[in-house]
Amino acid sequence: MIPKSQNLTQSESQVSRADRERLLRHRAVTLWFTGLSGSGKSTLARAVEARLMERGVLAYVLDGDNVRHGLCADLGFAPEDRVENIRRIGEVAKLFADGGVITMTSFISPYRKDRDNVRALHDQGQLPFLEIHVNTPIETCEQRDPKGLYKKARAGELKNFTGIDDPYEVPLSPELTIDATNTTPQQAAVILVEYLEKTGLIRA
Amino acid sequence: MIPKSQNLTQSESQVSRADRERLLRHRAVTLWFTGLSGSGKSTLARAVEARLMERGVLAYVLDGDNVRHGLCADLGFAPEDRVENIRRIGEVAKLFADGGVITMTSFISPYRKDRDNVRALHDQGQLPFLEIHVNTPIETCEQRDPKGLYKKARAGELKNFTGIDDPYEVPLSPELTIDATNTTPQQAAVILVEYLEKTGLIRA
Questions:
Q1: Which residues in chain B are closer than 8 Å to A64, comparing Cβ atoms?
Q2: CB atoms within 10 A of CB A83
Q3: Which residues of A fall within a CB distance of 8 Å from B2?
Q4: Is the CB of B149 inside 8 Å of chain A's CB atoms?
């Protein structure tokens, strides 16, 4: 997006992201969880957060609950609102990662283009970005239906519901895919933390 | 703001802000710098950031440059855009502070109501909020005019410019007031860091 105001100069901080990473003793990265409602994104992100914090790694989860009530409280679930929602979250994740934090985002983020935009944003800032597809089949998600949303969507009480009357565009080349049907959040969190170790983002 | 969607449940993280504060060995807080263009807000915030980082305190500055190019790139300087700009920044500062970071925001933030809203938001989250008025007289700001903006505003090339054709509402009870006319950013940063020590937010 081209800034609406041209009276801006990009200022350089005396303190760099590298300084913050040295202080924290780990790299900063955004872990972008995407998947259907009820797929287990938030539970997984919380499990990863807990494991990382046990090891002294600063992690933070942005999720539909804390962001939708605040930063994006003015947005609904219509297509254009979903686009703006993901754009803002992508920008905030970038700021957090620039702040040195291992940042996890847990949003359905159904559209490929929006996720690709967020990835490009991180690439521009030379910030690592990992797309994690929580690939739980819709049948499982609908069976779980923790918030009763699928039931409402099937009854026509909820419109623009991903997987029912709004598309979910499957990631084409995510860094990781997790099927949370037969994997517990704890097992999946182990896989993820090992991935962060192997890629050198955190210490083994 | 009442969330537009009612299909939300506020989820509790297993990891709390207190856990992150223990990890980082300091409290989280938002330092909200407010003052005219050219008053020295950003320079001061950067000086405080550098001093804090030297002491192993994780700090991050949100400023007009990094936020206006990203999260708020869709907003201009008209009154309604300024309101939305400050609302979003307030929400992001709250998320950062919840993440355990000592968060500094450097925006003119000219309207009292908007600043009070951000304070209320932090109060709701039981997050410490310090309003710091960088009270440099407009004559000094205009003489400095580091970006040539006052000159443009006086020539009528810039509309809605704070202090010229848009009001700056002076804080009524800021936690700190700094006049950056005769105080160097380094001196002011010492005052601020001492304040954080005295109030127990960081270790002496």
A1: 8
A2: 15
A3: 73
A4: yes
- Do A149 and A161 touch, CB atoms closer than 8 A? yes
Write down how long chain B is. Answer: 204
pTM over 0.90: yes
What residue ranges of chain A have pLDDT lower than 50?
Answer: 6-12
Number of helical H runs and strand E runs in chain B: 8, 5
Burial letters for A62-75: b for 16+ Cβ neighbours within 10 Å, e otherwise? bbbbbbbbbbbbeb
**What tokens appear for A37 in the block?**
């409602």
Beta-carbon contacts of B10 under 8 Å, excluding residues fewer than 6 positions away, are A65, A66, A69
Could you tell me what percent of chain B has a pLDDT over 70? 94
Among B58, B93, B13, residue whose Cα is nearest residue A53? B13
pLDDT at A181: 85
* Shortest CA gap A187–chain B (Å): 17
β-partners of residue B63 are: B106
pLDDT (tens digit per residue) in B29-76:
999 999 999 999 999 999 999 999 999 999 999 998 789 889 999 998
Marked catalytic residue, from B37, B42, B106, B109: B109
With 90 as the cut, is the pLDDT of residue B5 above it?
A: no
Separation of alpha carbons A194 and B9, rounded Å: 31
Provide ipTM, 2 decimals.
Answer: 0.91
Which A residues in the span 166-195 are in contact with B, Cβ-Cβ below 8 Å? Answer: none
A-chain CB neighbours of B71 within 8 Å are: 88, 91-92, 95
Given a cut of 50, is residue B11 above it in pLDDT?
A: no
- Is the Cβ of A51 closer than 8 Å to some Cβ of chain B? no
The runs of H, that is alpha helices, within B99-162 are 112-124, 138-144, 149-154
Paired tokens of B158: 């810039």
